[in-house]
Amino acid sequence: MKSALVCGAGGFIGSHLVKRLKKEGFWVRGVDLKYPEFAPTAADDFAIGDLRDPQFCKYVVDQPLMEIYQLAADMGGAGFVFTGDNDADIMHNSGLINLNMLEACVRRNVKRLFYSSSACIYPEYNQLDPDNPNCAEDSAYPAAPDSEYGWEKLFSERLYLAFQRNYGMEVRIARYHNIFGPEGAWRGGREKAPAALCRKVAEAPDGGAIEIWGDGKQTRSFLYIDECLEGTTRLMRSDFTGPVNIGSEEMVSIDQLADMVIRIAGKKLAKRHIAGPQGVRGRNSDNRLIYSRLSWKPEQPLDVGLRLTYAWIAAQVKK
């Protein structure tokens, strides 16, 4: 039987990936500090534990596994990553997880290992113009990420590539660009912009207002979870190592994103801009490389995923 391990299976992307692999006929082991928050896990086996512990990593990699997906990290949205209050934990916790998992995989002679990096590795100096950011994969150096989260992700990319060179592993590295969808964090400080705006709109009375961090002109692209998983599994089973972007090329400003959610909700709401963490001024996925190597790139319109996400979050707000 096909077998897979998903590290971070209690999180948003990881829990959806487990469901995807099960539909493909895999036996799946999930690993995390906690079970998924919003739906039962679909994993055949779920190990609760701390991947910062090298002994636990050895325990979960206890058998030959066809595919290992390393998604586990200490992360969140702008309110978590860009305040500076969590920098030490982000770098320490995620760094330990990756070091331990690579060591465990080498000991078990695991060959195929996927690592989820981030668009946050791209240099701040290439993302100052909100209308013309440069996020081509080869623009990552000279390195200058705008957060310690980005620096840790960039270090870990190099760590995985070094293990590939020195230990004969086949690693696959994707740089995710703002993945969103149902069954993800939507409150508590770790939620990302689409979920935060869906929550604010769902909670606001018609005719009221929602708060936007910054001037609302900062730009991003957002990728729906199903397309993220399609790109991830295609990359995993290809002969291409990466790193490669997995993201949408439909760039919008945060104000435009808010307007889309307001329109989906059928409300009339004003936007009130306040001080808050924003990250870079502009970021958008460059999909030339993934299309040239995998003959695929995401194409679903942002509006489609937002409608599904808003409906789910609005239902959570009403509970």
Question: What features would you describe in this structure?
Answer:
With about 325 residues, the protein is of the alpha/beta class. It has 2 domains: about 5-180 and about 225-245, NAD(P)-binding Rossmann-like Domain (Rossmann fold), CATH 3.40.50; about 180-220 and about 250-280 and about 300-315, UDP-galactose 4-epimerase, domain 1. The chain contains 10 helices and 13 strands. It has helices at about 10-25, 55-60, 80, 85-105, 150-165, 195-205, 225-235, 255-265, 290-295, 300-319, and strands at about 5, 25-30, 45-50, 65-70, 110-120, 170-175, 180, 210-215, 220, 225, 245, 250-255, 270-275. Strands 3-2-1-4-5-6-11 form a 7-stranded parallel beta sheet, with helices on both faces. Helix 5 (about 150-165) links the parallel strand 5 and strand 6. The radius of gyration is 19 Å and the shape is globular. The model has no long low-confidence stretch (mean pLDDT about 95).
Give the N-terminus to C-terminus distance in angstroms: 40 Å
Structural class: alpha/beta
Number of strands: 13
Q: Provide the spatial order of strands within the biggest beta sheet.
A: 3-2-1-4-5-6-11
Helix segment count?
Answer: 10
Q: Radius of gyration, Cα only, in angstroms?
A: 19 Å
Largest beta-sheet characterization: 7 strands, parallel
Residue-averaged pLDDT: 96
CATH T-level fold name of the largest domain: Rossmann fold
Q: What share of residues is helical?
A: 25-40%
| Gross morphology | globular
Percentage of β-strand residues: 15-25%
